Amino acid sequence: xxxxxxxxxxxxxxxxxxxFKQITKEAASVGVAYLAKNAFPMNDYTGxxxxxxxxxxxxxxxxxxxxxxxxxxxMKEPNQSDENLxxxxxxxxxxISGNARKYFGENMVISIPEKIAHLPENLDHxxxxxxxxxxxxxxxxxxxxxxxxxxxx
Amino acid sequence: xxxxxxxxxxxxxxxxxxxxxxxxxxxxxxxxxxAVLGLNxxxxxxxxxxxxxxxxxxxxxxxxxRTAKVLLSIQVDAAQGRFDPxxxxxxKKVSTLFDTTLNGFKTGGMVVGGDEKPVHxxxxxxxxxxxxxxxxxxxxxxxxxxxxxVIESSVVNEIxxxxxxxxxxxxxxxxLKLMNDLTTQLERNTKTKASNLQLIQTIxxxxxxxxxANIVFNALRKLRSADGEIEKAQRETTEILNTVKEGLFxxxxxxxxxxxxxxSIGKILQHEVSANMPFMPILEQxxxxxxxxxxxxxIQLLFGNKVKENLMLSLNPLTxxxxxxxNDTTPRYLSFQFNRIVEGKHVLxxxxxxxxxxxxxxxxxxxxxxxxxxxxxxxxLKRLLxxxxxxxxxxxxxxxxxxxxxxxxxxxxxxxxxxxxDLANQCFRIIHAIKGExxxxxLDAIETLAHEFEEHLVTLxxxxxxxxxxxxxxxxxxxxxxxxxxxxxTISNVMQAHHQANNSTAKPPSISTSVGNNLQRLAExxxxxxxxxxxxxxxLGLLDEMDTKxxxxxxxxxxxxxxxxxxxxxxxxxIRLAKGKTAHGEISIATRMNQQxxxxxxxxxxxxxxxxxxxxxxMLASGRYATDIVNQLTDKEIVGKLFEPGFxxxxxxxxDAGRGVGMDLVQSLINxxxxxxxxxxxxxxxxxxxxxISKPAQPSINLNATEAVV
Lengths: 153, 710
Description:
heterodimer, A: alpha+beta, Chemotaxis protein chec, seven-stranded antiparallel β-sheet, 3 helices, globular, B: alpha+beta, Beta-Lactamase, Four Helix Bundle (Hemerythrin (Met), subunit A), 4 domains, six-stranded mixed β-sheet, 22 helices
């Protein structure tokens, strides 16, 4: 049994980076990465995917509304309603999910992404003693990727 | 272990030594009494001989009168014309007897005694007695000559007879008086001798009584002392048996419990135990029928004495046995050990030691369960079981805090606008401190993780830009360390819970001892890995009076300076010997208080010292520094370089040194304490780091110090 490696976590980051690169022609980069067990840097809209099988826990991609609006603008989407902003963050979570499924295979069963607005900064249940927090930079915006996934088998 | 009670020679010698005083006194007493007896015998024989002299002296008085009387009778007979040859015969007899006796008194010799038998007469002694004998001889010699014709003639010659009679009349009383004087003198001499003998006997008796009293007194004292020792030994045995945690008792060949047993045995066996009680029924209630049968066979085999005890150890079915509890549903485990007590070749008893090992067994089970859940290795478990609780808790708490700080540095990296090299240096200092402490604790797993972390930071420090993977690598490594520490915390908590639940009364070691143990362990590890011989001398008593934060900081400083001292200061044994030093290098760490109550922390090694020229050469050899820059620096600036992050003179890096972080960390810790670092060093002689705990200042460096620096 081994914990998540840098390579594993990088899969999630690459998915986000790839998404931004593909949609906006401008890649997202990693600002800082650290550990947290509470006070997660949650933004306005969060996409969450839960994992099971050999792993447990969840992954959160949380972005501020300004970033998502800018993204919709770049995508030439005039409707910037809350619902569309949630869809946007959900789409990113979905992309992460697709890449992860491809990488982890049947060892990691991934749920359908959930889209949540204004998720509290403390989680009800945490799979890892310390979850990874990776600050993703795109343009001058900062989004959070929170990886609270633990390998159990 | 086998106890033997076979008597031996040393024991006998011991007993002889023990009673040497009494034996000497008894021997002296016997010799003394023999001497007194000999003296008595001698004096008695002397007194016998004196009695003979007195008797014969008395007889001389009688003989002198008989001589005169017979002479006068002869004269009377002659006047009447008669002659009686009987008278002449008697005169001859008495005069001869008087003569031989008187001469006997003069010269000593055999004379005729009162019973007509020869007897030895002693020569008289004493001035008065000798004079009496000499005077008597003066009278007797002419008297004897005058008597001679009277005795020899068968016809009476009146003229001769008259001359003799006249001489007798004239001297008879004188002779009687002299014989009286002799008798009196002899009696007086004898009385004096008898008095002396009485005195000697009285003194001998008193001395004999004193000797006897001394023997009795010493014997009683020895007996009382022996009784006291026996009583003390019995009391101590009872105290031991009353206080010892283990159940101890003797088992006789009939498998009955002996007369003495520890008071805890009843509690451990949960069964009342008394002397001569059969043991097997108690055991039967405790263990399963199968184990009971094996145990019975095993015990009988032990009494059989055919198989060596050591070979049978592994056969003991009661080494760790689950026992039935009377009122408790939780399982209990007991450990029975049997040791033979042998006299000659005969097994007298078995010493049975019973321990309640429930705690150890359940702890091992829980730890083993924990092991199943994670990747904790057995070596780590062993280290933790041996670890000092204070040090472990202190380490865990500080390590946790330090890693949280490191995480905060990572989280705020972009806000601080610090460059990546600075970030790496900050992380480095924290990880290096944890590595040092983990090494001192013997926590190899954490030390290895920290070392890997450091190696990674070295790579990162060289890069001006970090990619995503490199940024991500730091929290991933951090997470690994936190997870390891979390696991140790879990085990530590289980151990502590057991410790508290079992109300352990064992006193924890003092903080100074605890820190000392850690530093000793570190010194041993580092010197072993550096293949150097190092002795660590510690004087850390004052740590017990300091707050835990300062103690922790000083311990960290000690750790770094020991590492540095061994890696850079102490020379290899052959180099030391060539320099005329001992093969063993010495590092001393001391806390000392001056008269003003200010405490100094001093770390000193007797190694090669800090030599600026060598540092310069090492800097140039490393290729990291330009020649002109190195040459521009003063000696003190060169030494000051040792405190810069990333600076190292080591030609290669390993777990112990070469990253250039140790001295940077030391300086930073001393700054936190508010100390004033002073470095004294002399090439090839020593290096001493000292600072005062409480006074902030810049390090002062003395490159021409004398060895007397303290």
